[in-house]
Amino acid sequence: MKRxxxxxxxxxxxxxxxxxxxxxxxxxxxxxxxxxxxxPLLAFGLAETALDPARRWPRLVTPMAMMLVELVAVWAWHxxxxxxxxxxxxxxxxxxxxxxxxxxxxxxxAAIHTxxxxxxxxxxxxxxxxxxxxxxxxxxxxxxxYGSGMPGMHHHxxxxxxxxxxxxxxxGVAMLVIGGASYFLGGIALLAGLLRAKPEPSK
Length: 203
Prior knowledge:
Blueprint: H1 2-19, H2 23-46, H3 53-56, H4 63-77, H5 80-88, H6 90-113, H7 117-140, H8 153-156, H9 164-196
């Protein structure tokens, strides 16, 4: 199962990059694929191996610390000025995508690996909350926040013939549905595992 998860996670990375060429909706979908779909699959596939970040650096890769790293990455890259800079420089757009994938991998690895399961659950649920908040802010904004220069938009345009505002609104929905739901369900799955775990016998 771990090999299948690892392979699927790797295959989703280029798929996400391809999605980024279709307006704001594609851009948001690409980032959510990286941080909330490919990253947990990769983290699960690498768990307890020599390449597991949380196993290699347990003092650094902790759930709450990595939750803050991902929060900064997600919110910083969606500041309008930073977005415009990434639009203008393809290498910066690639760095953006890589940072989403890396931050997601670190957080999911920490949440899965940590012996303090409550910390992993809390980190995933807090991430779900801030992802939901950002998705709502983008989706309910009364005007386009990023203009029409999203990566690749000049090649393919917004999907379904959407105007910029509707494209942005659909992008916010993508963040809500993919990002918020992924971390929420991950937290619930860890909680279910914690509740099923048998208490250690007292010595």
